[in-house]
Amino acid sequence: KEILEKYHDLFTLKWEGVVGNIHVPSQAEWEQLLTNCSAFLFYGMERFMSHILLNRLVAMNIPKCCLIILLDLMRSKQSHQRITKSDIHKSCLRIAIERPTETAVLLSLTGVRSIIANQWYTTLQENAERLEIFSESLLNIGRTTGQTVHILQK
């Protein structure tokens, strides 16, 4: 919410989505947000693919989406317990498909042009810092995504 308020006058007027813990997005909401966006930001706990139905994602066509930023793989005690319970009902192959590289491949096959994603688990604080750097670099300074990723790698 702080990021949205800070960059409100730049581009965020056109942003739509689910903010905070108001509710868990339905599959229909995920699909609507993904198919109607030019850029998509996911900032959430655990794996992005654990929040969306795989069979629906692979059937989607998302050519308008130029960029997806996945600031996922954050873990808390509660999120780890929730994902562990959920994973019990999944095959090893399904869990493997939810890994960062496989997620990027699937999103690319649906038509997404660029994907920026975490490669390993991180803390809430580290992802908050990444989001602040992304927002400042992309929205305020006007750097390219490549320049912004390079800054994050340092």
What does this structure look like?
This protein is of the alpha/beta class. The protein has a domain at 24-124. The chain is 47% helix and 12% strand. The chain contains eight helices and three strands. It has helices at 2-6, 27-35, 54-58, 77-87, 92-97, 100-109, 124-141, 145-153; strands at residues 39-45, 67-74, 114-117. Strands 1-2-3 form a three-stranded parallel sheet, with helices on both faces. The protein starts with a helix and ends with a helix. The mean pLDDT is 88. This is CFA46 protein. One of its GO terms (biological process) is axoneme assembly. InterPro entries: CFAP46 (IPR039586).
What's a concise summary of this model?
By secondary structure, the chain is an alpha/beta fold.
Q: How is the topology of this model organized?
A:
Elements: H1 2-6, H2 27-35, E1 39-45, H3 54-58, E2 67-74, H4 77-87, H5 92-97, H6 100-109, E3 114-117, H7 124-141, H8 145-153
Parallel strand pairs: 1-2, 2-3
Helix pairs in contact: 7-8
Alpha-carbon Rg, integer: 15 Å
Structural class: alpha/beta
* Overall geometric form: globular
Biggest sheet statistics: 3 strands, parallel
Oligomer: single chain
Helix content: 40-55%
Protein name: CFA46 protein
Organism: Rynchops niger (Black skimmer)
Q: Which structural traits does this protein have?
A:
single chain; alpha/beta; 8 helices; 12% strand; globular; CFA46 protein; CFAP46
